[in-house]
């Protein structure tokens, strides 16, 4: 009687370049794919609404593709350790394989489960698949993690080149045993009352086939202009790969090697992949990245009492600041925001509205389809000045100057916030704060941080 291998899918919802899947297939036993929706284990952060929408589509695509190749995808809900153990018993499995995660709670779950399964005689192995470089392989000469991007990326590039991606398997033997699975629709990942996802459906098609098609399109049509126009939100010259990488519909190894084959000099784009690596490495060493200032002297920043109306105006794109409002509405409609505008909207929240960066991070976590446990808090702390390789804490993005520089013809603003167009009769909202006065208040607050750092 065959003893199946279980491939526990997590943030790697793909068939190509999936080392865990490859290891299971090479055992010459039936393979059962498993995805666990874990919203109960201690320390696991529940997904935001936009991420849940994406997950539904990506799981549907993965399940269909596995079935086409003869395999199966089992869906279960509950604490990961309990569910995986149950499925091992239900299937009579003799091996479990997964690709590594790097958040603190996730690593603890995986380590404890690996120990428990091995004690029961189950073969268990984990693999490097979500990062180009494992965090423990990139350290300073003194054996500490890097805190500045440039030397970090230089150290990465000095290591052996990332491995070549693995090909997609031609078939997946799912065996004859049927293991009970939840129905994906019963998980209610899609919004219904109200259904706010119309814009997401217009903008995106989750799943590995669409991800690979987008990578090919970007490399063919946009890569040449990327370095020159990537900061111009109206140009549309971005890879649009961030949700694909977040959900693992593409591996970074595939993106890396395909990019080099397309243009060996594409250093500007590849350094953005490096920034993603830097965020993940930072999370590995600082698992509380989403809740605590990386530089603890920033705990001294004197946040004023929250004005809920200001937070709500920012969330809804009703601040009276054209570029900020355009960005926040793009986010709500499409589940993403141009990176330059992300920095501007985040700076405005923190340094003009004087609202704690953690509240902005939480909003992005709920509204971004690419909300990532490393990149989202890492980038918010970068803007706040409290994080790794942060912009100088006193740097405050002036949204008006940013608009003049990167959206000089107002095309991006006109698309997402048309009331600011010169030829419209619609009355735009008044700014909810004075940019100059609020900037001064922020700098005064940072003086407290400077004093704390000296004490």
Explain this structure.
The protein has helices at 19-25, 49-68, 80-91, 104-119, 149-158, 198-203, 208-229, 242-246, 252-262, 267-285, 308-316, 322-334, 339-351, 357-367, 375-384, 399-406, 411-416, 435-454; strands at 5-9, 31-37, 73-77, 95-99, 123-127. With 455 residues, the protein is mainly alpha-helical. A 5-stranded parallel sheet has the order 3-2-1-4-5, sandwiched between helices. It is globular, with a radius of gyration of 23 Å. The mean pLDDT is 95. Belongs to the DNA photolyase family.
List the helices and strands and how they pair.
Elements: E1 5-9, H1 19-25, E2 31-37, H2 49-68, E3 73-77, H3 80-91, E4 95-99, H4 104-119, E5 123-127, H5 149-158, H6 198-203, H7 208-229, H8 242-246, H9 252-262, H10 267-285, H11 308-316, H12 322-334, H13 339-351, H14 357-367, H15 375-384, H16 399-406, H17 411-416, H18 435-454
Parallel strand pairs: 1-2, 1-4, 2-3, 4-5
Helix pairs in contact: 3-4, 5-10, 7-9, 12-13, 13-15, 14-15
Site (Electron transfer via tryptophanyl radical): 303, 357, 380
Domain Photolyase/cryptochrome alpha/beta: 3-132
Cofactor: FAD
Task: Please outline what is shown here.
The record marks 303, 357, 380 as: Electron transfer via tryptophanyl radical. The protein is mainly alpha-helical.
């Amino acid at each position: 009687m065959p003893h199946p291998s279980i491939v526990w899918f997590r943030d790697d919802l793909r068939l190509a370049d999936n080392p865990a899947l490859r290891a299971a297939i090479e055992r010459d036993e039936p393979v059962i794919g498993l995805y666990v929706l874990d919203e109960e284990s201690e320390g696991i952060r529940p997904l935001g609404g936009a991420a849940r929408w994406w997950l539904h589509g990506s799981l549907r695509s993965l399940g269909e593709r596995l079935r086409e190749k003869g395999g199966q995808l089992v869906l279960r809900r509950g604490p990961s350790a309990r569910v995986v153990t149950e499925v091992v018993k239900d299937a009579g499995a003799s091996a479990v394989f997964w690709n590594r995660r790097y958040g603190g709670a996730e690593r603890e779950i995986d380590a404890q489960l690996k120990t428990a399964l091995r004690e029961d005689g189950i073969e268990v192995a984990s693999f490097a698949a979500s990062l180009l470089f494992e965090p423990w392989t990139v350290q300073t000469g003194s054996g500490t993690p890097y805190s500045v991007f440039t030397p970090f990326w230089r150290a990465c590039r000095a290591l052996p080149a990332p491995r070549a991606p693995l090909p997609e398997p031609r078939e997946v033997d799912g065996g004859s045993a049927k293991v009970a699975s939840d129905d994906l629709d019963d998980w209610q990942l899609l919004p219904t009352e109200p259904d706010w996802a119309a814009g997401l459906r217009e903008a995106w098609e989750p799943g590995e086939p669409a991800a690979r098609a987008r990578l090919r399109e970007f490399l063919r049509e946009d890569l040449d202009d990327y370095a020159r126009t990537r900061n111009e939100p109206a140009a549309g010259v971005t890879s649009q790969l961030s949700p694909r990488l977040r959900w693992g519909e593409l591996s970074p190894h595939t993106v890396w090697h395909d990019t080099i084959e397309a243009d060996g000099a594409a250093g500007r784009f590849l350094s953005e992949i490096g920034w993603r690596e830097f965020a993940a490495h930072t999370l590995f060493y600082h698992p509380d990245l989403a809740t605590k200032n990386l530089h603890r002297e920033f705990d001294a920043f004197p946040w004023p009492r929250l004005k809920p109306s200001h937070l709500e105006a920012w969330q809804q794109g009703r601040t009276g600041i054209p570029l900020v409002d355009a960005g926040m509405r793009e986010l709500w409609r499409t589940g993403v925001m141009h990176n330059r505008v992300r920095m501007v909207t985040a700076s405005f929240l923190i340094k003009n509205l004087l609202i704690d960066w953690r509240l902005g991070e939480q909003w992005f976590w709920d509204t971004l389809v690419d909300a990532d446990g490393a990149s989202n808090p890492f980038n918010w702390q970068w803007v706040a000045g409290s994080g790794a390789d942060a912009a100088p804490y006193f740097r405050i993005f002036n949204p008006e100057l940013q608009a003049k520089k990167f959206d000089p013809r107002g095309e991006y603003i006109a698309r997402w916030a048309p009331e600011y167009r010169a030829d419209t009769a619609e009355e735009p909202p008044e700014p909810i704060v004075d940019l100059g006065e609020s900037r001064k208040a922020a700098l005064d607050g940072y003086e407290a941080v400077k004093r704390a750092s000296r004490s």
